[in-house]
Design goal:
- The protein contains 20 helices and 2 strands.
- It is mostly helical.
- Helix 4 runs antiparallel to helix 7 and helix 5 packs antiparallel against helix 9.
- The radius of gyration is 35 Å and the shape is globular.
- Pfam families: Otopetrin.
- Keywords: Cell membrane, Hydrogen ion transport, Ion channel, Ion transport, Membrane, Transmembrane, Transmembrane helix, Transport.
- This is Proton channel OTOP3 isoform X1.
């Protein structure tokens, strides 16, 4: 019968509770296994794919190739500098074996090679597709390019005076001497034009060749600077000719080569001696610009940095006392400068004009030092954040500021030793001693003030897009409170920017910066365009000897002029960022 057959099927035995628990146990473990499998599956995409690993390998190889190119080009420049330095030292210590003409031939060869590379860079490298995709907005500011053109023009005029002086003596000198100034004028003209136009470039093609060309040009400018510092042949020749002219007027005849037209030669002599320091300053500026270009080769600038940042307008914001005090210093400096220059045009500079010159410095330098100390203290009271973003241009500015300060500080230390060892009780020597000590103090305090200001984030500076993107990508930990805090911060920054005249700290910084700007312009003008008392007072020259003191002054004074000019640029940035 069908019913009994189906009865056992319907009456299946029910499992016991223990069996139900045993059967349910694997079911409880299944979610764990599934979760582990999902976690492993989710971890699989996080592992680096073949494309990512290949791209990382290519990136590492590119970085290694870039470091190798920098190393090779640096070694090239080092070898060129050592070779030129060996020639110049041999010329100084053994004028028979190696003459000044041999050094000129070596430098002329380096100038021609540098000129060929500069022309190739402009005509070929920069015209290739994707050659200059980025530009460094911080490189080559207007004051650097303006100084490049100013000092380049003065160096060009210096070579014109030199050619004129040699032409006036062509009857008793070699015509080959005219060849070297002409090459230098062509080199200066083309180099100045290329650096003005391409100082912001971040070249992406022919990187190794570009690095080598930049280092070759930098080494050439460095050797020109070394030769200008150590070579006093032209100055000795001028002094010898003046001495011969005095003997000729007294009735003694000599066989020295004399100028055919005394009036024209006097113009050439004065122009050459006045413009001589500008050649060393021009070489230093070119070296700095070329080094920045070398660092930027192959560099990829972020998009928020690639766009030119908005130029903050230069407003006084109610700043009164700083410019007024600075103008008083400028007026006094111009008066002292004019009086000293009028006196220096005569045969002998009177004693009281040296007193006036050094007394002006003794009055101005401590005032500048106190202003720098006050500005550094205000920087410490500020609430602006430190700008920790890597910036090679700012790093180079700091290095140049510290390095250029060594020029005047070195002269000051040499003067201190000479005064203490000879006649420290005389009035002029005491003034020179006080001037040297105050000059060292002023350089130290001003460097502290400028470096501290450059590393403060300007209030008008926008937050980089990359940082904003990271902040937006991160999940807010406190929800709307974080967004509210960020909004309040932006609103407070906008308020401070709009009503900056209400902040006494910022106003004090602007007053101090403007005062120091005008003072540095004054102290830049006096040694740049005038006779140098450090060489004319005779104290250090008698103590160290003509050749040694000539090298010390020609090494330190151009660095001092460059320091004042560089300080003005740094102080302008501090003023705009305050």
């Amino acid at each position: 019968m069908p019913v009994p057959a189906s009865a056992p099927a319907e009456a299946l035995p029910m499992p016991s509770p223990e069996a139900q628990e045993t059967e349910a146990a694997p079911e409880k473990e299944n979610p764990v296994d599934v979760g582990a499998e999902e976690t492993a599956a989710a971890a699989q995409p996080r592992q680096k794919s073949w494309l990512v690993r290949h791209f990382s390998l290519l990136l590492r190889r590119d970085q290694q190739a870039q470091k190798a190119g920098q190393l090779f080009s640096g070694l090239l420049a080092l070898n060129v500098v050592f070779l030129g330095g060996a020639f110049i030292c041999s010329m100084i210590f053994n004028k028979v074996a190696v003459t000044l003409g041999d050094v000129w031939i070596l430098l002329a060869t380096l100038k021609v090679l540098s000129l060929l590379w500069l022309l190739y860079y402009v005509a070929s490298t920069t015209r290739q597709p994707h050659a200059v995709l980025y530009q460094d907005p911080h490189a080559g500011p207007l004051w650097v390019r303006g100084s490049l053109v100013l000092f380049g023009s003065c160096t060009f005029c210096l070579n014109i005076f030199r050619v004129g002086y040699d032409v006036s003596h062509i009857h008793c000198k070699s015509q080959l001497r005219l060849f070297f100034p002409v090459i230098e004028m062509v080199f200066i003209g083309i180099q100045t034009w290329v650096l003005w136009k391409h100082c912001k470039d971040c070249v992406q093609v022919q990187t190794n060749f570009t690095r080598c060309g930049l280092m070759l040009t930098l080494a050439t400018n460095l050797l020109l600077w070394v030769l200008a510092v150590t070579n006093d042949s032209m100055h000795r020749e001028i002094e010898a000719e003046l001495g011969v002219l005095m003997e000729k007027f007294s009735g003694n005849e000599t066989n020295t080569c004399l100028c055919l037209n005394a009036t024209v030669c006097e113009v050439f002599r004065k122009g050459y001696l006045m413009l001589y320091p500008f050649s060393t300053e021009y070489c230093l500026i070119c070296c700095a610009v070329l080094f920045v270009m070398w660092k930027n080769v192959g560099r990829h600038v972020a998009h928020h940095m690639d766009a030119h940042p908005g130029i903050t307008p230069f407003h006084l914001h109610g700043v009164i006392f700083g410019p007024l005090l600075g103008l008083l210093v400028l007026l006094a400096g111009v008066c002292v400068f004019v009086l000293f220059q009028i006196q220096a045009s005569g045969p002998v500079i009177a004693f009281q004009y040296f007193i006036l010159y050094y007394a002006f410095y003794v009055a101005v330098l401590p005032t500048m030092s106190l202003a720098c100390l006050a500005g550094t203290a205000i920087h410490g009271l500020e609430e602006r954040e430190l700008d920790t973003v890597k910036n090679p241009t700012r790093s180079l500015d700091v290095v140049l500021l510290m390095g250029a300060a060594l020029g005047q500080m070195g002269i000051a230390y040499f003067s201190i030793v000479a005064i203490v060892a000879t006649r420290p009780h005389e009035l002029l020597n005491r003034l020179i001693l006080a001037y040297s000590l105050l000059l060292i103090l002023q350089h130290i305090t001003q460097n502290l003030f400028i470096i501290e200001g450059l590393h403060r984030r300007p209030l008008w500076e926008a937050v980089p897009e990359g940082v904003v993107g990271k902040q937006e990508a991160e999940p807010p930990r406190r929800g709307s409170l974080l967004e509210l805090g960020q909004g309040l911060r932006r609103a407070s920054l906008a308020y401070i920017h709009s009503y900056s005249h209400l902040n006494w700290k910022r106003r004090a910084l602007k007053e101090i910066s403007l005062f120091l700007i005008v003072c540095n312009i004054t102290l830049w003008m006096m040694p740049a365009f005038g006779i140098h008392p450090e060489f004319e007072n005779g104290l250090e020259k008698d103590f160290y000897g003509y050749r040694i003191w000539f090298a010390i002054v020609n090494f330190g004074l151009p660095l001092g002029v460059f320091y004042r000019m560089h300080s003005v640029g740094g102080l302008v940035e501090v003023y705009l960022g305050a």
